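Fold it.
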Amino acid sequence: MLLMVLAVAAGAVIYAYTMGYLGGLGGSRTPGALSLDSAKANATSDIITAYVRNIGKGSVTIEVAYVDGTQIDITDVTIEEGTVETVSINASSVGLDAGKTYEVKLVAADGTHLTFSVKAD
């Protein structure tokens, strides 16, 4: 009886685990994957420049950025599969200070996101 209860519990755990990861597959929109090649922040001009690579399938369009939690609307940047594009963020609403490190999050239309840190020069 104990072995039967353990088998049912293990099956429920495995089911919950796989459905959490596989439940979204096969949908009409599968999120992409982004990778950061490099980034720099200029405290004088309050501009953060990121070189972002699309390592997923299909194209990804980055629509919004967050700098230390502050939302910053940017010009949409579409990154085709396997290519690198430049994403420029005008962080004047945050005000970059030289020597300080900022957390930046880029969010795409399909929910794909990339978070990284950059130190202002």
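Residues 34-119 form a domain with the Immunoglobulin-like fold (CATH 2.60.40.10).
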